[in-house]
Amino acid sequence: MKRLRVDAKHIPLLATAGVMVLMYVSGCIAFHDKNFSSLRVIVDLFGGNAFLGVAAVGATFVILSGGIDLSVGSVIAFTTIAVAAMVSKGLHPLPAMGLALLAGTAFGAGMGVLVAAFRIPPFLVTLTGMFFARGMGFVVHGLSIAIEHPFYQAVMRHGAIVVTRHAKTGAPAVQIPSWTICFLLVALAGAWAARYTRFGRNVYAIGSSEHSARLMGVPVTWTKVGVYALAGFCSALAGCVATLYMQSGNAASFVGSELDVIASVVIGGTLLTGGVGYVGGTVMGVLILSLITTLITNANISSWLTSVAVGILLLVFIVLQRVLARGQSAAA
Amino acid sequence: MTADAGAGIPIPHGAFVIGLWVALGAGLVACAIRRSRVSWALAALALLLLFNLFFTKDFFVIDLKPDADLRHWHYFGTLVDILNHGSKVMLLALGMTLVIATGGVDLSVGAVMALSATLTAQAVVAWGWPFWAGALMALAVALLAGAWNGLLVAGLGVQPIVATLILMVSGRGIAQLVSAGQIITFSDPSYTFLGNGHLFRLPFTLTLVVAMLVLTSLLTRATAVGLFVEAVGDNPTSSRYSGVSPRLVKFLVYSFTGLCAGLAGLIAASNVKSADANHCGLFLELDAILAVVIGGTALSGGRFSLIGSMVGALFIQTLTTTMYARNVSSDVAPVPKALAIIAVCLLQSEVLRQKVARALGRAPR
Q: To probe the interface with A, which of B108, B122, B166, B347 has the most A CB atoms within 10 Å?
């Protein structure tokens, strides 16, 4: 008889999926009077933290490589204000976003050089990067700038995929907004890059054992620079996505987003020691974060509980990872 | 070199200032002779002070002025402000130095600050406790928070960044639960004295910092504890074989950092006479880590310098004050700070040193 065997490295991922399903089902049971099980709620779960998801895909690669990126929130904020400032100066949003993406990628690559070539600890480099990007955002503009451009209105009007329509009026009832589409595309691209490209395999190799990877001939330095550049790109893209639904830019926004990003990656089953994890898990982690927020809003309890709940989930998953790691080393 | 330059130009009056320069110069010379890593931090601080001597008006002027009730006379001036405002980072850096020396790091100190500040304010304002009871309770909770970090790191073997990240995420949430999301303002005289009062004509916080510094130095350097900490940071396995328990040492060090953060939180709240769970100690974990790094404690662990960290903290505070004096907005201030930190890290980077040495045609030491 063929037994169903579960690989140890899949256990965190299965735990994530279990937690997600459990939370969703309990939400459906507890709030059945509020239409919790409707299609709209599911679509909103993806849309609510779309920017977080985009940034988290980049952060997954960083954590897979054994590093960490604390600059995410600041880079997002910088991108929103930079795009808003350029658009308000008369530039079309598309080249403005292109420039912002370029800046984010270059910034990430710079941090990658400091980490990979100069061997400065990643958390220190990205911590100062967080300072730097936050300050640079204020250099661009100190206050919030509203974005008013036909392009943005067009994206708002035509950028969404309509899923269902009202039976009588024919007006869209449930639609997938442009930022959710962007999140899903980035997640797909990330999952593909992690699994099917040489870059992805190199990242896993470095995260498992940097020393062995080097001995095997993996270009460790360049791969690491690439990883941080990718994370910078994803953060900047998250900023562009955020401008879509904020319709404004603000250098003071997204304080602490890096923690949500790291939390969703870890809750998504990626080991913080590197080498083990999936982009798909990160997507589930983002959904779990959205679920927590939705549940707490529906239950009408203090929103401060959100961060406590995220902390507790983080703890559970980290302890789970430790227990698994010990079990593996004991078995080996 | 800086000491010479300092002697050559008219120094603003005040025995205090001259004393400071003499101490600084002497320290610099001593460290240069010993080739200690502290010399880098001292040199950076001296350069910054020198810059201010030339470019910031009245930077070194210290006045003896009466306070509001005209009965007590205190020293006032930018330097005194730096010492006063730097006290929080100095306290945090004390604990952080030991944590980093064991090869770890504590990201949760800012959140613990918010927790202890909010708890004390809530106890004093809402529950009507006397200040000492509220403060003791908050410090005990801060100690527990540190012990929790220690438990995760030492007991479960979780990476320090990750273990302390949990409390960094949820600590402020817990603080907001305590305060129901409100900013608690207070007027309790003891609580306000902590961050605004004076002792020996200088801010009271200074006495507190010096007391904690002396205590920590005695604890670590007059006993073998400091050696244990360095041994654990250097090589946990070999220290275990020589009879030092890395787990116990790490647990104690994280607990101590929690306590330091709690104390810093009380001062931070006292400074502004209100406890704001959202902003109390925000990003201060950064300043604390940077103070330790600038002070010459290696992030890889294995050796530490408490004095270096104090100099590092003063450097950061002086940098901040200098920027404010030059009308740099507090929002933009992180940019030069970040550049300075990266510069210091690059200076300390072994890779860069070897590359420079190779470029100069010398073999690396």
A: B166
